[in-house]
Amino acid sequence: MLRSLCSQDDVTLTALTSFLRSTELRDLVLSHCRIHITCMEGRLARLGKRDDCEVMAELLASLPEFNASSVAFLRLAGFSVAVNDHVVLRGPHILPFLRGFTRLSELDLSLDKPGARDDPEKEDFVDDKTLVSFFSTLSQHLRSLQTLRLGNWRIKLDEPERSLRSVGRSLRLCSLSHLRADGLVVTDSGKAPIEHSFLQTAVASLGLLTWLAVEGVPLHPHQAAAFGRAVRDRFAGATLRVSAQDVGVDSVKALINAVQEGGKAEVTYLGGAGCNLRIQRVVKNHKIRGRLRRFTSLKD
């Protein structure tokens, strides 16, 4: 846990950015680090708990330019920044502050699991604007990113179809091959579960995706079936590995049945504690025979 006074922030940030510039770190781990900023005067001191956007804008404006291009792995699971004991930065809100990490290969912005004593009415959800902005920023500034971890994100969308279309457009510009969405919860404004809609957007938009982790995602069987159909019909790759531990036996069966329906793809259970599945697109025999005939004619 780090605590600083507002008047010392410039010195602290300068020291940090100078450190990043003068080293060749490849793996930076700040998971579960808590930064507390106490402001007794100035604009940040006057902003209240309802002014999170203004607080973030003020913090972003005070961030000096820096280049941390040597860092390939940045682990910020559970990382948060609080101003006057009010958390303003964590999870997706941290991304705009990472503009100097230009060559990241792996980024972990997972959130802590909600505690059993947490008040459900006070949960901090990712809304439409935040989600769309996050993936837009990701596609513009972190084009080389290969692995993204957003475990335990709780997303609530007022306009799910519109927002997910925007997310899909951004994902098409990304190079992600590994996406870890363990514990993901997504609902619409009526609190109906729509995790499958987010996952469908991911598999349909990420052309380089090879591994998707959905461990602990509360998929109902009909959601798992819808997700399976999206993998079968819209996934562009040849092979996709899915980690589906704690999704539920009925849901995993529904997923497998939907993927294999019609014979377009087959599923292999790889075993292991993570309930690992390999989904592989089936190459039709007539296509193979056609290629063999063409090869034989060329040989003759």
Write the layout of secondary structure elements.
Blueprint: E1 2-5, H1 9-22, E2 27-29, E3 34-38, H2 43-46, H3 52-61, E4 73-75, E5 80-83, E6 86-90, E7 106-108, H4 128-141, E8 147-149, E9 154-157, H5 160-171, E10 178-180, E11 185-188, H6 195-205, E12 211-213, H7 221-234, E13 239-243, H8 249-260, E14 265-271, E15 276-281, H9 285-299
Parallel strand pairs: 1-3, 2-4, 3-5, 4-7, 7-8, 8-10, 9-11, 10-12, 12-13
Antiparallel strand pairs: 5-6, 13-15, 14-15
Helix pairs in contact: 4-5, 5-6, 6-7, 7-8
Description:
This protein has 2 domains: 1-70 and 79-90, no CATH class; 110-299, Alpha-Beta Horseshoe (Leucine-rich repeat, LRR (right-handed beta-alpha superhelix)), CATH 3.80.10. The protein has 9 helices and 15 strands. Helix content is 35%, strand content 21%. A 9-stranded mixed β-sheet has the order 2-4-7-8-10-12-13-15-14, with helices on one face. The chain is globular and about 65 Å long. Residues 286-300 have low confidence and may be disordered. It has 300 residues and is of the alpha/beta class.
